[in-house]
């Protein structure tokens, strides 16, 4: 049934290896290790790999050790998850935690940590919902966008999306001023009907995905109605063989997901030239070690490897599980999120 | 000199704090030993919140291994401000790092924090730096984002259209430069640009001139379409007609460029209901697009045609 060109077993091996140890160039992602865990687990989920119980429990414990819980001394920290214990701090199951003044949660790590827990079928019983949503509220800016950490970083569409995805998965929107977030998204719509990272910035495939997925998660996609046709056209204009993120840039594996998912969110997935897109992804697939590179000539990396599979999933490629574009999770995992298995559905 | 802080006399007062990741850690990274050593001492010095020359030096070392480490940049800023370090000295360091890591969000954010803090009388030096940077890396999203921030923050609009002209001369298909023109135009129409101003009509002339030289330029057609929509919204007449006539003329002279026809589809669709002749042209163009000029999007153009025929 699988296409002979698709190297499923090599991909499984590649992601299992990533889950253990990443080579030195990943040092630049030391603060974002949770995103790497998500790419590896998410990819294995797309490949239909199941985890045995011990492996699952062990990863779940590591993820919970990155949760920043309310501080008994109330030093005003934003709660959520850190990307890794890079400040030497850990949280323990008994609620005790080591403290470091420069330790803190990051919105993208909170987003990917919850996704990982869902992929591993954890019931989220140890996720501190109210602490996380209170943290989100502190991160929203007067213009409606979100900053990723308490202070000292830029705010834009990426982090607004993370806030929406977290709120959706926690089924609690008390941390987001939805009207203000929707206004930021509308203000970031460009004259060509793509979306930039913020107002006046150039339309970009990544920020367009974040904008559209956020509106969908907030149930505010009705605000798009008069622009759907034009945004659809802009997205489709970025296909050469695969997709690129801006006009006159080179096709790049990850945009098969960013633009592909945007088109699915616009109910226009059927207008994609899937044949050409899949042909492109087959050329960025690494035949030696599995995974996907950014371009045909690039070595594979964990982000593009995940995105390559996600792009194939949207194209209903045989052997890759179907997915929900707004949450960037398999349909099976989203079904688990909607089930009674999740703690607060039972309360 | 030893590359390790653990061997240095002047650091012996600190007890290093290891990352101490759990035995079940996932996605561990095969760090360089020097990075591990430097991070061990960073955890220790930042625990004490010591903002000193040696702490500044330490952040510099870690940044060369991991320029995306936002905690290190934050701590570096606190050291710089506590020590009142000379801005030029710091910018020299940042320029070196930026050269090897043009796409690091943190470096550009750091530049913005420095500009905010040192608050120069004029942003000219920074604008020149970004200008030089964009000459080499003309679509760098971070650089354009920072440039827009500088222009707004210091309200310096006068020379920006010239800068856009220069960038479009270098590459007429640079969509980032076209977007920057739109940024200037919107600010002017909103009355943000003080004595400097630019109009929709002037921009129409500019776009048509560029399209005469290179008709197969999607960026310029998107810009033109934006102008047409804006003119219609503001009740400025004649813009849509001039643009449509221009595109129809290219078609009648045998242009096979997809963006020309894609633009015509939008223009003709607005008038198609009232006019049988333009409806016939529209259907012909849609067939040309799906069968000849833009076959990768054949499904899309057929879909557009169905919507009209129905």
Automatic annotation (TrEMBL), chain A:
UniProt GO cellular component terms: CAAX-protein geranylgeranyltransferase complex
Entry EC no(s): 2.5.1.59
Keyword check for Zinc: yes
Keywords (A to Z) from UniProt: Magnesium, Metal-binding, Prenyltransferase, Repeat, Transferase, Zinc
One annotated GO molecular function: metal ion binding
Residues covered by the Prenyltransferase alpha-alpha toroid domain: 6-329
Domain of life according to the entry: Eukaryota
Enzyme category, top tier: transferase
Cofactor: Zn(2+); Mg(2+)
InterPro entries recorded: GGTase_I_beta, PGGT1B-like, Prenyltrans, Terpenoid_cyclase/PrenylTrfase
Family membership noted in the UniProt record: Belongs to the protein prenyltransferase subunit beta family.
Quaternary data: Heterodimer of FNTA and PGGT1B. PGGT1B mediates interaction with substrate peptides.
The protein, known as: Geranylgeranyl transferase type-1 subunit beta
From TrEMBL, chain B:
A single GO cellular-component term on record: CAAX-protein geranylgeranyltransferase complex
Protein's UniProt keywords contain Nucleus: no
GO biological process terms, semicolon-separated: peptide pheromone maturation
Cofactor(s) needed: Mg(2+)
Alphabetical list of SUPFAM superfamilies matching this protein: Protein prenylyltransferase
InterPro entries in the cross-refs: Prenyl_trans_a
Keyword terms of this UniProt record: Magnesium, Prenyltransferase, Repeat, Transferase
A single GO molecular function term of this UniProt record: CAAX-protein geranylgeranyltransferase activity
Pfam families: PPTA
Listed EC numbers: 2.5.1.58, 2.5.1.59
PANTHER family: PROTEIN FARNESYLTRANSFERASE ALPHA SUBUNIT/RAB GERANYLGERANYL TRANSFERASE ALPHA SUBUNIT, PROTEIN FARNESYLTRANSFERASE_GERANYLGERANYLTRANSFERASE TYPE-1 SUBUNIT ALPHA
Sequence similarity: Belongs to the protein prenyltransferase subunit alpha family.
Protein name as annotated: Protein farnesyltransferase/geranylgeranyltransferase type-1 subunit alpha
């Amino acid at each position: 049934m699988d296409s002979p060109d698709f190297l499923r077993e090599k991909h499984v091996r590649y992601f299992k290896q990533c889950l253990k140890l990443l080579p030195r160039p990943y040092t630049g992602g030391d603060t974002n290790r949770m995103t790497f865990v998500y790419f590896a687990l998410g990819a294995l989920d797309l490949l239909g790999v199941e985890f045995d119980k011990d492996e699952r429990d062990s990863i779940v414990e590591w993820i919970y050790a990155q949760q920043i819980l309310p501080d008994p001394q109330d030093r005003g920290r934003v709660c959520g998850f850190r990307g890794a214990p890079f400040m030497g701090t850990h949280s323990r199951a008994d609620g005790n935690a080591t403290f470091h003044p420069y330790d803190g949660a990051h919105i993208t790590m909170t987003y990917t940590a919850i996704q990982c827990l869902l992929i591993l079928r954890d019931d989220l019983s140890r996720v501190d919902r109210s602490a996380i949503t209170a943290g989100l509220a502190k991160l929203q800016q007067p213009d409606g966008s979100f900053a990723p950490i308490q202070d000292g970083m830029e705010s834009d569409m990426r982090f607004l999306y993370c806030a929406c995805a977290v709120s959706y998965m926690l089924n609690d929107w008390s941390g987001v001023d939805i009207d203000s977030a929707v206004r930021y998204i509308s203000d970031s719509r460009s004259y060509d009907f793509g979306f930039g990272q913020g107002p006046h910035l150039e339309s970009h495939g990544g920020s367009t995905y974040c904008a559209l997925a956020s509106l969908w998660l907030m149930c505010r996609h009705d605000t798009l109605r008069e622009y759907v046709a034009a945004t659809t056209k802009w997205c489709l204009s970025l296909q050469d063989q695969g997709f690129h993120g801006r006009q006159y840039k080179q096709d790049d594996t990850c945009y098969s997901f960013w633009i592909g998912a945007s088109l699915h969110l616009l109910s226009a997935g059927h207008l994609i030239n899937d044949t050409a897109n899949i042909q492109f992804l087959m050329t960025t697939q690494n035949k030696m070690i599995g995974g996907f590179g950014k371009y045909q000539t690039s070595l594979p990396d964990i982000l593009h490897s995940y995105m390559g599979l996600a792009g194939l999933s949207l194209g209903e490629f045989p052997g890759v599980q179907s997915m929900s574009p707004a949450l960037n999770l398999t349909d099976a995992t989203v079904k688990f999120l909607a089930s009674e298995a999740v703690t607060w559905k039972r309360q | 000199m030893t590359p390790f802080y653990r061997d240095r006399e002047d650091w012996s007062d600190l007890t290093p704090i290891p990352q101490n990741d759990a035995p079940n850690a996932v996605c561990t990274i095969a760090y360089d030993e020097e990075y591990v050593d430097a991070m061990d001492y960073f955890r220790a010095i930042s625990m004490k919140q010591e903002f000193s020359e040696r702490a500044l030096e330490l952040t510099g070392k870690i940044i060369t291994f991991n320029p995306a480490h936002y905690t290190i940049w934050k701590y570096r800023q606190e050291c710089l401000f506590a020590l009142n370090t000379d801005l030029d000295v710091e910018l020299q360091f940042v320029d070196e790092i930026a050269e090897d890591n043009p796409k690091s969000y943190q470096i550009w954010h750091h530049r913005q924090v420095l500009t905010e803090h040192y608050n120069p009388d004029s942003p000219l030096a920074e604008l020149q730096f970004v200008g030089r940077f964009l000459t080499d890396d003309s679509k760098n999203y971070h650089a354009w984002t920072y440039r827009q921030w500088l222009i707004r923050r210091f309200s310096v609009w006068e020379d920006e259209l010239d800068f856009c002209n220069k960038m479009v001369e270098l590459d007429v298909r640079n969509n980032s430069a076209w977007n920057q023109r739109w940024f200037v135009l919107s600010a002017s129409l909103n009355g943000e640009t003080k004595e400097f101003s630019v109009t929709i009509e002037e921009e129409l002339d500019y776009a048509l001139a560029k399209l005469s030289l290179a008709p197969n330029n999607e960026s310029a057609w998107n810009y033109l379409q934006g102008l047409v929509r804006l003119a219609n919204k503001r009740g400025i007449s004649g813009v849509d007609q001039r643009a449509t006539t221009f595109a129809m003329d290219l078609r009648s002279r045998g242009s096979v460029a997809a963006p020309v026809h894609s633009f015509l589809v939008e223009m003709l669709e607005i008038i198609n209901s009232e006019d049988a002749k333009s409806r016939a042209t529209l259907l012909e163009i849609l067939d040309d697009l799906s069968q000849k000029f833009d076959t990768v999007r054949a499904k899309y153009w057929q879909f557009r045609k169905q919507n009209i025929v129905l």
